[in-house]
Amino acid sequence: METPRFLSGKLLLAMPGIGDPRFEHAVIAMCVHDENGAVGIGVGHQRAGISLRSLLEQLDIDPGQAPDTPVLHGGPVEPGRGFVLHSDDWGGQDTISVDGIGALTGTIDVLKAIAEGKGPSRYLVALGYAGWGEGQLDEEMTRPGWFTAAGRQDILFDTPTEERWQAGFKAEGIDPKLLDSAAGAA
Fold first, then answer.
1. Which Gene Ontology cellular component annotation is one that this UniProt entry carries (predicted)?
2. Domain CATH for 99
3. What is the predicted pLDDT for the residue at 6?
C-alpha cells in the first residue's frame, strides 16, 4: 500500500489507543503537508480557562464585536502561539489557503479584524499546533494510529468541538463506537 502524502486540507483523526495521551480523540485540520514536513491545527479539544474575548484582552485588543467563543488546543508545539483557521472570505498578512478547509492565519491582524467585526465569517481560534518534520508524518501514516478523513467545513465550523471526532468518522461511514483500541496483526 502506498503511503498517503500531501494531506493538506484533510482531517487526521486519532484512532483509539494511539498511545500518546496528547492526541487522544484528536481531530487535526491539516494545513500544510509537503516534502519538508507537516503542520496541522487541533480542532477537537478546547483550552481550559480561556475564551476568545479573554485572549483578545490579554493581547490588548478591544474585544469589540468578538463573541465569547472557546479557544482550542491547537497542538503540543508552541502552545502559546495563536492560529486562526477560517473561511476564505478574508485574507491578511501571511494568510495561507488550505484546500477544502478555507485558510489559516497566524498573525494578529486576523484577531483585530474579528474584534472589529471585519474578519472572516467563520473561524476557529487555537493556541499551538501539531507539527511533523520531513517524512515524519509519512512514516506515522504507515502504522496504526491515524485515520485520514476529508476536510469538511461543516465539521470544522458547524459541529460542536466535543463532537468533531465522532462526526469525522461518521462522515466517512464509520461508527466510532465500533473502533477497537487494540491493534491486531494478521
1. cytosol
2. 3.40.1740.10
3. 77
